[in-house]
Amino acid sequence: MPALLRSDSLPDILYSEVIRAPVAEVFKALTTARLMDDWGAGPARFQAKPGGKWSLWDGVMQGVVKEVHAPDRVVFTLREIHWNERDPDSLVIIELSEIHRGTRIELRHTNLPSRKIRQLHEDSWGDVYLGPVKAYLEATFSPFVKTRTGKLT
Description:
Layout: E1 13-19, H1 23-31, H2 33-39, E2 45-46, E3 53-56, E4 61-69, E5 73-80, E6 90-99, E7 102-110, H3 115-141
Antiparallel strand pairs: 1-7, 2-3, 3-4, 4-5, 5-6, 6-7
Helix pairs in contact: 1-2
C-alpha cells in the first residue's frame, strides 16, 4: 500500500457559509472562548491576538493565532492532538464579509498532512464547526438582523 501523500500535493479545503447575523457577532463567536463554549466547541480557549494560543474541545484541536483583523479576518495554525509530531501545522484563513441580512464566511484550510485527514476536515467544517456557529447565532439574531444603519429588517 502506498504511503499517504504529503500535504504539499493536496488541494486546499475551501468552505463558504452564510449566517444570518451581524458580521461583528460572527467574528466574536469565532474568536471568544466563552461563546465557543456556548456553541459547542468547549472547553475552548482563544487568545485573539497574534501569537495567542487557542484550543477547542479540551485541546483536541489547537494552534497559534497568526492574524486578527476584527471583524473580518482571522488566521491561525491548526493541528489535532493525534497528528504525528513530525507533521507540520495546517493553516486556516477565515474571512468575513457583510452581505444583505447577514455575513458570508469564506474559509481556506491548507497544508493538511494526509488525504485521510483532509477528507475528515472537509467533511467536518460544516457539520462540527461552522454549522453549530450558524445554528447558535441564527437562534440569537433571527428572524431580525440589524442592517448597517442599525435598523431591524
